[in-house]
Design brief:
There is one protein chain. With about 400 residues, the protein is of the alpha+beta class. Among the domains are: about 5-80 and about 185-250, Rossmann fold (3-Layer(aba) Sandwich), CATH 3.40.50; about 275-390, Nucleic acid-binding proteins (OB fold (Dihydrolipoamide Acetyltransferase, E2P)), CATH 2.40.50.140. Helix content is about 25%, strand content about 30%. It has helices at about 50-55, 100-105, 115-125, 140-155, 170-180, 200-215, 225-235, 250-255, 260-265, 295-300, and strands at about 5-15, 20-30, 35-40, 65-70, 70, 85, 185-190, 220-225, 235-240, 245-250, 275, 280, 285, 290, 310-315, 320, 335-345, 350-355, 365-370, 380-385, 390. Strands 6-7-8-3-9-10 form a 6-stranded mixed β-sheet, sandwiched between helices. It has a 5-stranded antiparallel β-sheet with strand order 16-20-17-18-19, with no helix packed on it. The protein has a 4-stranded antiparallel β-sheet with strand order 2-1-4-5, covered by helices on one side. A hairpin with a 3-residue loop joins strand 12 and strand 13. Helix 3 crosses helix 4. The radius of gyration is 27 Å and the shape is elongated. The two termini are about 35 Å apart.
């Protein structure tokens, strides 16, 4: 087991055809504790996979340093770093069986010389022969034991003699995980390992990976685009954007307390509703209507250094109530905002409503009970929780709520 530390890591690719250099990572400072499951999220091209490849030794740093267990690995080869990477494409050897794929890294984990190498090779080749004809090798026997242990752990015992072409997508993914687990590395690196699986299999494999990581206690860095994976698997989430680390924290912290507008819109489904706002002595002015705030938030607005430009609120913090046809032309209604239902997304256990506010014609997403009788075009009253607003300044930074 080992901690991982990125110290002001930069990565830039050289210019091509007279262009400028492409800077992918712009000074990343990030520490992953021993045994932690850290999820890296961000839009495509933000540098998530590059960060993993720098740790694995598949890319070289342009600046900074990477440490594993307190030791710099910048000048070590990938084989010497004691990390194992699971790729999105599985990267199994098609000509090897499942057992041979699982054992591949073990057989190359330590250098061998001369007769020992020949003996290990003969032991591997003669393993299917009758016992009296086999060549014995303690190393090869240890490899076989480890393969059996990993196969039992991942329910691969009946698939050991199959080739990758004979496996389903989920089985291939388990083999790729098993190959990484077999080596007992200090750090696991997983680059969108579930992206090629169907929804049901993805859910099952997600739970299996989380259980395995908890059982093994191995430090894990996991890259994903999937919000559910990020929120349910990681001890912490790190959000990247344009090669810059935006925020690191527990899933609920990022969801409830985003540090800027980018995190607020990137974390969570649906993203946080963002509305232009102006503070008043009694609350927030939204498109000509003053909405009440809790005492806690009014205290924040009372500070002279709190120039609010945007107010954000999650879909579940908006309560909806049906209104009569007479409310259709009203800009506002007591206790909330007049709105018209623009979209209805039935999710089984709830509904996700796209509501267009009468004042300002802005669209907000609202979570509503599954049994609420609502259709597109209906008039609603949308009432915000006065203590659930997240406030941002003109630069998009969240105001401290104390």
């Amino acid at each position: 087991m080992a901690s991982v530390e990125f110290r002001h890591c930069r990565k830039a690719y050289p210019p091509r055809a007279g262009g400028t250099a492409t800077e992918v990572l712009k000074g990343i400072d990030l520490t992953v504790a021993d045994g932690e499951f850290l999820v890296l999220v961000g839009p495509s091209g933000c540098g998530k996979t590059t960060l993993l490849r720098l740790l694995a030794g598949l890319e070289s740093l342009s600046g900074g340093d990477v440490l594993v267990a307190g030791r710099s690995v910048q000048h070590l080869s990938p084989a010497q770093r004691n990390v194992a990477m699971v790729f999105q494409s599985y990267a199994l050897y098609p000509h090897l069986s499942v057992a041979e794929n699982l054992a591949f890294g073990l057989r190359r984990s330590r250098p061998r010389r001369g007769l020992r190498r020949i003996q290990d090779g003969l032991a591997h080749c003669t393993a299917p022969w009758p016992r009296p004809l086999r060549v014995h090798s303690r190393r090869e026997a240890a490899v076989q034991r480890r393969v059996q242990e990993v196969a039992a752990m991942l329910d691969l015992g009946t698939l050991l003699q199959r080739r990758p072409r004979e496996l389903s997508g989920g089985q291939k993914q388990r083999v790729a995980l098993g190959r990484a687990i077999a080596r007992e590395p200090a750090v696991f690196l997983m680059d969108e390992p579930l992206s090629n699986l169907d929804a049901k299999l993805r859910g099952e494999t997600r739970l299996a990976i989380a259980r395995l990581q908890k059982t093994l206690g191995t430090t894990t860095l996991y890259v994903t685009h999937d919000q559910v994976e990020a929120m349910t698997m990681g001890h912490r989430i790190a959000v990247l954007h344009h090669g810059v680390l935006q925020q690191v924290g527990a899933p609920r912290q990022l969801y409830n307390q985003p540090v800027n507008l980018f995190v607020a819109q990137f974390i969570g489904h649906p993203p946080m509703n963002l509305l232009p706002a102006r503070p008043t002595p009694t609350g927030l002015m939204l498109d000509g209507q003053v909405l009440p705030l809790s005492e806690r938030l009014r205290a924040v607005l009372a500070q002279p250094s709190a120039p609010v430009a945007t107010a954000g609120i999650r879909a579940e913090a908006l309560r909806v109530g049906m209104q009569g046809e007479a409310s259709q032309d009203q800009a506002s209604i007591p206790g909330g905002l007049a709105a018209t239902v623009a979209d209805v997304e039935a999710l089984g256990h709830e509904q996700l409503l796209g509501c267009r506010l009468a004042a300002g014609q802005r669209l907000v997403q609202v979570r509503a009970p599954a049994d609420l009788p609502v259709r597109r075009g209906d008039n609603l009253a949308v009432t915000p929780d006065p203590d659930a607003w997240r406030l941002f300044d003109a630069q998009g930074r969240a105001l401290s709520l104390g």
